[in-house]
Amino acid sequence: SYESILNRDTNSNDILKSEHLKDTILIGKYPELIVYSNKYKIAGKIDLPIFNEDKSFIIKDYKTDKIINFEPTAYYNKKTNKKEIKYFKSPINYIPNTNWNKYQLQISIYAAILENYGYVFKGGYINHITVARDRNGNYILEDDKPIIISEQEYEIKYLKDEAIKILELNK
Hints:
Layout: E1 4-7, E2 15-18, E3 28-29, E4 33-37, E5 42-46, E6 48-51, E7 56-63, E8 74-77, E9 82-85, H1 99-115, E10 120-131, E11 141-142, E12 145-146, E13 148-155, H2 160-169
Parallel strand pairs: 7-10
Antiparallel strand pairs: 1-2, 3-6, 4-5, 6-7, 8-9, 10-13, 11-12
Helix pairs in contact: 1-2
């Protein structure tokens, strides 16, 4: 069984600690939830996991990149004199290295960790928030907050097999 620490937003002073998370049932929204797997020696912070009474959950992740690259970009390789697409390293060296695929893998890893605790993953979403920027790329603020131009939600593909391959590297 896994030892873990789940930490709700520290401002809430609500910290859940459990040596056997499988005995703990989370219900509701847990902004910036920290998950840890002792088995895989990995931890991460999930922007917004939402848990249901039946132990199913979804994950929402928020990104403010200027663009999300859904398709790979070919780069000119001087050695081969050809355009080539960059891929992730082994064991997932068949997946193009784009920020979209990175985000899908990130959510998939979080989902795989939570599934080890008996939860059932029902979907992951990237919320791409476009913010106003000055010519140097810095956020333009209004009342000390970035000005949001648009928000678009995208559903990810659960890359469970790939997530497990990555997690197995950490064992």
